[in-house]
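hiii, so i know i said id send this last week but things got crazy w the move. better late than never?? heres the sequnce for the chain we talked about at the cafe, plus the structure i predicted for it. fair warning i was half asleep when i ran it
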Amino acid sequence: MTWHVDAEDLRAYARGELAPPALWSADTHLVACARCRGVLAEVGDPERVDVGWERLDAELDAPRPGVLEGLLMRLGVADHTARLLAATPVLRRSWLGAVVAVLVMSVVAARTGTAAASPTLFLALAPLLPLGGVALSYGPALDPTYEMAVVAPMHGFKLLMVRTVAVLTAVLGLSGLATLALPGYGLGALAWLLPALALTSTGLVLTARLGPVLAPSLVGGVWVAVLLAAHAYDAGATPVPFTAAGQGVAAAVAALTGGLLVLVRDRFDRFQGDAV
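okay and structure toks below
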């Protein structure tokens, strides 16, 4: 090898001031030339080299974002928020696959029923999915990242809302797609939406006092009991929650519990074993 990088170019290279194409030539040459690497070590700033090595170590040790986290950051979500969302247990493929399976089975049951049948099974199950999803996304008993979240510099209510929005977006989106498979029922197939919001917001309010396991279990149990009572009273009629009056009550409950949720937001910062 007869050509070597000029000493002035090596000094500029060490300072990060060498411009292309000389920079590209120096990069290629330094890979194969021990002499020039030695000169570069002599003319370079030791502190700058140490800082560079520290930055390289930090980059190599930093966890690589997953597919979901990377997609969220490309959509403009802040990196720390994207990591919280990616760590949400119910956004994993197993949970989403189970949701899809439940929705598909309920849609199939509605489409293969009698001509007079209504999509009651679908309407009954769809509101329970976001309630269960939110319950699984927050709390010491069900969230494997809960203790890390507790010590993180973030309001517990904000973490809960971030994950609630993520769950609602995923589950309501899937439920909405399932609704498109029931065109014969018209707008009646959307009667699950307001009950879903009412159940979820009620579950969140009660979570502040009863914990993330008991509260959604209680709300879901009441929902099932109401549907069973309506079916026992008149099996052929439209269940009360899916009538016009029932939809109005669901909207009122969702609005009321949404306001109450803001009032009790500070309760979500408390760590009390199996309760929030």
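btw The first helix runs from residue 7 to 15. thought thatd interest u
miss u guys!!
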